[in-house]
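Not sure how to ask, but would you mind making up any protein sequence you like and the tokens describing how it folds?
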Amino acid sequence: MYAITIPEPGGPEALVWNEVPDPVPGEGEVLVEVAAGAVNRADILQRQGFYNPPPGASPYPGLECSGRITAVGPGVSGWAVGDEVCALLAGGGYAEKVAVPAGQLLPVPQGLDLEQAAALPEVTCTVWSNVFMISHLRPGETLLVHGGSSGIGTMAIQLAKAVGAKVAVTAGTEEKLRRCAELGADILVNYREQDFVEEVRKATDGAGADVILDNMGAKYLDRNVQALAVNGRLAIIGMQGGIKGELNIGALLGKRAAISATSLRARPLSEKAAIVAAVREHVWPLLDAGHIRPVVDRKLPMSDAAGAHRVVEESGHVGKVLLVVR
């Protein structure tokens, strides 16, 4: 098969479409012939040499894909050759084939084609696990999403609105904010021109955000705490703004607030399977009914993964950038 390899870390040009050995499904795994994969910020970090795959995972980038099952390994039940699926991966999505633990498979939702489904696993699992399983967003509460026009952001808006929450978003252009509003965002903050702490407080009568989904890390840490409501929950899922920040413990105590920080890739298989099962139970019915949808910015050939990385690094996209095998 062919896969995107990284002979040496570097810029987008470091991604090379090479012929490599076919993967073989092991105990509890299936082999998926990939139709499409999706680009995530973690892939960019791996390409740069900063985020290696966990032990035993595929060395190729790609944390999600869609495709058809072509082989079923020992110990697998509930899935068969020919099933159309999408999958959460620890790596290997930038390839023509990938071996996937059966607990990380999801069926293609009704009304979506096989390629569109590649935009779902990472965002749905990240949003559901952080915003709902850990931070327990409830109807009537306010969720603040940083990077509202990203793949994560566009799904977080839709899921929060589906459960009856109010949604605030930050984005860097009026066009991106307009797209967020179309998805249901109530409070729109241009972070280049406005202070999100002030805007969120103003829109919530001084209360602040009950849950904040943050992709920035250190840069926003202090201001996120300021923006939290009493009993608020800050969920950190990214480090685009750095890894070391100063935390005002007094402010956190005064708000009786909580901070969590998670990633999906290195979690044990059992934890990933539990998240995937929760997503299938709670999110997939919303997809099947057409209440929420993945937002796909564009599709590029998987062999042009370098071009896709450039698009994501320039932050000119809204939603997900897909890599298609054709």
About this structure: The chain has a mean pLDDT of 97. The chain is about 30% helix and 25% strand. The two ends are 13 Å apart (CA to CA).
